[in-house]
């Protein structure tokens, strides 16, 4: 039987040309960012990318890995994880990494995406001893400096952005470290920041020690259910990954990023006994807020303290957060009960706008939910039912299905009350929060033949109450169709079409406002070619049209990117030149940028102009790597200041 398995794997064998682990990581990040290109703001949550990079140095042994660790990678769907665990249970330990192609439902692209982070070993690997927790990990120090030339901003501090991070990481078992950051325009060692950096964070995290599944001290994040009542970590929305619509991750994770809002500060632990796991956590921290003597008008999440107005809002309110969850494992799934509450030192005042009538008010919130997941053969069911302290409900039900070889489908139905309230949700929704929405999402993934992949989804939704810039109940529809062709391991071509229909306020001829229809369509062609001379070429052409009753906007962009390693040197160079022409109010095109390690951006293009950037990476030694980056965007209306960045990372 073992010989037959090796023969099957050999017949499926591809000639492996493994990219440098960092290149693979950067590509994974770029794909993830473009799958959620609805937001203009750049995320500072790089925890997932830190974890993936750590696994390039401490690879998961597929012959020993458990289901939770495989899910935590964030690269596989629940169906793919279940298929692998069944395969290993049926046939025993893997004999070769190439045997992964024999796992039902896994294609060549899935295997290649996973390769930098996993290994196959038949050695005896027992549970690590306590002494291993501080010996087998890796120390990392990061120092990053960002500067914009010739800025005209009238801020209190310099235009320099500084970040320092030290972290010790033993992936899956232990983590500790400190992070410090100063944003551009903030003061340093004076004024409001006399202690140096504007933001400090520290954490200690231990996992999988006897019955302690997780212990988090200091700064940490909490992820519950499907995000209806609480989800701190980054989670993908609607996009090309039509089968990755389920929220998955550990309940407690260490917080290691530089964002200043989406985390807790205190302690949390998860204890396990047989099929049961119990989590409890508590947090006390100060939040920036705007308001008056009567209460708070808004909580500020940006973390910017650049002028006297922003400085005046520093830490104006204290927030105590507490909660926990109980989970029970069943065959092929689990059931969980989740509770979380928050108490503010000053009340949130009611919104003065009609669309904000049901926003969170008062000084206390309390939410509870029940969530579940269950695999039955080629089906995976999941969902969550949540309730707030005022009795409003939110519900999400999902299904992932492997209909046949090469045909997968996903379905999500959600119904969120117009007045449902929660502080830190991040659930699947057309809105930014799971509130005021009913919708049905259907996704389909086809692999008709080797090298071809077709993905499509449609999402139909309605909002029973008013929204920002929508002064009436409204509805909408999103759709995507994407074809990917990989004729070989060095060529990939993608053609993608998206269409979106939503409602927005318009002004009538007599000045009377009404709600009109907005239709946006987008067509993208993207190709990548890796030549034999270790040169990677990326080319993209994209066009869109945004139709409103009052105006029509159109846009296009073209970019050419090149990445290469200078022969005979430890120097890597990459650059991109983009030309864009985008017209129309509210119209924009998006493209992710390949920057320095752990520093990723999403550019939004509007107007007419050029963008270019140049990245250089130099490996000083086996453990020290340096980056340098120059970035500039020039539009006819206005040119952004040139951006200069450098970064040093040391590992040992």
UniProtKB/TrEMBL annotation:
<keyword id="KW-0732">Signal</keyword>
<dbReference type="InterPro" id="IPR010994">
    <property type="entry name" value="RuvA_2-like"/>
</dbReference>
<feature type="signal peptide">
    <location>
        <begin position="1"/>
        <end position="21"/>
    </location>
</feature>
<protein>
    <submittedName>
        <fullName>Helix-hairpin-helix domain-containing protein</fullName>
    </submittedName>
</protein>
């Amino acid at each position: 039987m073992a010989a037959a398995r090796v023969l099957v794997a050999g017949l499926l064998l591809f000639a492996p040309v493994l990219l440098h682990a960092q290149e693979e990581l950067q590509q994974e990040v770029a794909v993830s960012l473009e799958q959620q290109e609805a937001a203009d703001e750049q995320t500072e949550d790089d925890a997932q990318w830190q974890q993936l990079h750590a696994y390039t140095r401490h690879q998961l042994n597929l012959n020993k890995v458990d289901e939770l660790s495989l899910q935590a990678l964030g690269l596989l769907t629940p169906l793919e994880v279940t298929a692998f665990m069944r395969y290993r249970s049926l046939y025993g330990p893997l004999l070769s990494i190439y045997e992964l192609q024999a796992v039902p439902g896994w294609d060549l692209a899935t295997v290649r995406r996973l390769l930098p982070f996993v290994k196959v070993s038949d050695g005896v690997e027992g549970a690590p001893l306590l002494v291993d927790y501080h010996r087998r990990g890796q120390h990392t120090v990061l120092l990053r400096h960002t500067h914009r030339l010739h800025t005209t901003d009238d801020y209190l501090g310099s235009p320099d952005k500084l970040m320092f991070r030290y972290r010790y990481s033993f992936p899956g078992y232990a983590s500790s470290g400190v992070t410090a950051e100063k944003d551009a325009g903030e003061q340093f060692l004076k004024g409001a920041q006399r202690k140096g950096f504007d933001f400090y964070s520290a954490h200690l995290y231990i996992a999988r020690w006897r019955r302690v599944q997780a212990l988090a001290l200091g700064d940490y994040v909490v992820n519950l259910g499907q995000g209806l009542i609480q989800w701190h970590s980054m989670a993908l929305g609607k996009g090309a990954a039509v089968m990755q619509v389920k929220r998955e991750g550990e309940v407690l994770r260490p917080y290691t990023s530089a964002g200043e809002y989406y985390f807790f500060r205190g302690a949390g632990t998860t204890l396990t006994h047989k099929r049961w796991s119990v989590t409890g956590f508590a947090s006390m921290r100060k939040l920036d807020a705007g308001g008056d003597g009567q209460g708070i008008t808004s909580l500020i999440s940006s973390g910017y303290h650049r002028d006297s107005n922003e400085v005046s809002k520093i830490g104006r309110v204290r927030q105590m957060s507490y909660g926990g969850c109980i989970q029970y494992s069943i065959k092929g799934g689990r059931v969980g009960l989740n509770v979380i509450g928050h108490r503010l030192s000053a009340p949130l005042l009611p919104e003065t706008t009609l669309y904000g009538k049901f926003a969170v008010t008062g000084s206390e919130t309390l939410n509870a939910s029940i969530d579940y997941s269950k695999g039955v053969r080629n089906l995976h069911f999941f969902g969550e039912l949540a309730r707030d302290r005022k009795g409003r409900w939110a519900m999400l039900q999902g299904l992932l299905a492997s209909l046949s070889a090469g045909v997968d489908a996903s379905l999500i139905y959600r119904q969120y009350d117009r007045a449902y309230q929660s502080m830190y949700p991040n659930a699947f929704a057309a809105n930014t929060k799971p509130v005021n929405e009913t919708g049905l999402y259907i996704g389909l993934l086809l692999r008709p033949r080797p090298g071809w992949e077709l993905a499509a989804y449609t999402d139909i939704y309605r909002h029973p109450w008013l929204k920002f810039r929508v002064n009436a109940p409204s509805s909408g529809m999103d759709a995507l169709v994407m074809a990917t062709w990989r004729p070989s391991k060095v060529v990939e071509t993608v053609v993608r079409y998206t269409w979106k229909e939503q409602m927005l306020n318009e002004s009538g001829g007599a000045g009377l406002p009404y709600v009109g229809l907005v239709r946006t369509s987008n067509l993208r062609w993207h190709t990548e070619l890796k030549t034999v001379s270790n040169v990677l070429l990326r080319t993209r052409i994209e066009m869109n049209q945004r139709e409103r009753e009052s105006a029509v906007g159109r846009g296009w962009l073209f970019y050419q990117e090149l990445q290469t390693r200078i022969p005979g040197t430890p120097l890597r160079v990459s650059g991109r030149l983009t030309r864009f022409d985008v017209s129309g109010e509210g119209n924009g095109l998006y493209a992710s940028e390949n920057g320095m390690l752990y520093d990723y951006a999403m550019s939004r293009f509007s107007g007419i102009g050029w963008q270019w950037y140049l990245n250089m990476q130099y490996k000083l030694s086996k453990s020290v790597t340096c980056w340098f980056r120059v970035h500039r965007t020039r539009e006819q209306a206005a040119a952004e200041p040139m951006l200069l960045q450098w970064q040093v990372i040391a590992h040992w």
